[in-house]
Amino acid sequence: MPRWVGGLGAGLTRLAERLETRRAAAESGTQPGPVPTPARVTAPEPSVPQPAAAPPAEPAAAPAVRPEAARPDPVTAVPWGIRVAAEVAWRLLILAGTLYVLMRVISAVRLVVLAFVAGLLITALLQPTVGALKRRGVPRGLATAMTFVSGFVVMGLVGWFVAWQVTENLDDLSQQVQHGITELKRWLLNSPFHVTQDQINNIADKLSEAIGTNTKDITSAGIEGVQVIIEVLTGILLAMFSTLFLLYDGPRIWQWLLKLVPAAAREGVAGAGPRAWTTLTAYVRGTVIVALIDAIFIGIGLFFLNVPMAVPLAVFIFLFAFIPLVGAVVSGALAVVVALVTRDVFTAMMVLVVVLAVQQIEGHVLQPFILGRAVRVHPLAVVLAVAAGSMIAGIGGAVVAVPLVAVTNTVVGYLRAYAREATERGTDAGLPEGAPGAPPAGGS
């Protein structure tokens, strides 16, 4: 009996040790080795004495299995430069898509957009007159009506005068053109370029042939010209209505537009709006003054050189001056060509000298002095803006491009300075929580 009880106790002890080994292995994440099945303990026959059994050897502990090394996060595996490039790329793609959709929408309603922008430019030109009349005690409605009517009457008279001058001098111009072509042939024959009569006749025959073969194209262009005239008249009416309401209700329209801006950014936009309008007004008024000076001085030069239609050419120079860089070249080239075909080569060279001299004075003296630093734009930006505007919306886009760039430059500069001052003050300055430059929530 004592031996049986002792064997039972030894078996229970070994079983407890094996269970402890399994528990430790489970906590450490390792797999325990095979555990031998404990021997069944039986009571010996009382009649046959059994020698005391030696305790079996303790089973060897199972070797711990090394856990698999953890794989790195895929985000950390991508190099930093590639991650930055990817973040910038998808944002640029979103901006490009937004601009593409915006350009498509503008192209679909191009006439309305150009008419409204033209009305905005005319409003910037006439609005100081409305302000001056209101300061003298004239009611707002009467001041708006007087300015609107007088402004469009002046523009209409200028257009009528140009058309009248062209029609009145058309017959004389035709005779002078024929005489000028004859003189040009004679000059070419006697020039050092060794041009022969056969070469001149060959060029004339090719021009006549080109005109004869392209008669259908010229006819279709005339039909399209009628459609263009209808669109121009529609745009003029839209521009007139836009000007009228902008002159009368401009401040209230601006307040309504501010309500569409999120409240967090409303303060900054409210400060940028008046500065943008000041820049636009300065640009339009300065361009009108510069164009008027160009037209007067070049027109005086054409008059003293006896170039036909000097006054209409001066008006064309004034209108083309609203297209920066390109307009001056085109109007100057037109004046030189008219002088060449109606007078002689020497007169054309003198007209070219006058045009270049006036344009140099304009570019280096008048524009910096009249326009000032408020609307100063780099020449490269002007060239690219005019090219892009002409590709998108033709001549109207070229006229609108530069004031748009000038206004954008002013607005961006103000918003950058506004954000910097807000950061220095330590206030949110209209920025939402978590936005760049905004303080943390709850901070001052």
TrEMBL record:
It is a multi-pass membrane protein. Residues 46-58 have a biased composition (Pro residues). Keywords: Cell membrane, Membrane, Transmembrane, Transmembrane helix, Transport. The chain crosses the membrane at residues 142-163, 228-248, 282-305, 311-338, 345-361, 381-407. It holds the Pfam family AI-2E_transport. Belongs to the autoinducer-2 exporter (AI-2E) (TC 2.A.86) family. This is AI-2E family transporter. It comes from the Bacteria. Residues 22-72 are annotated as: Disordered. The keyword Transmembrane helix applies. Residues 59-72 have a biased composition (Low complexity). InterPro entries: AI-2E-like (IPR002549). It is found in: Cell membrane. It comes from Streptomyces luteosporeus.
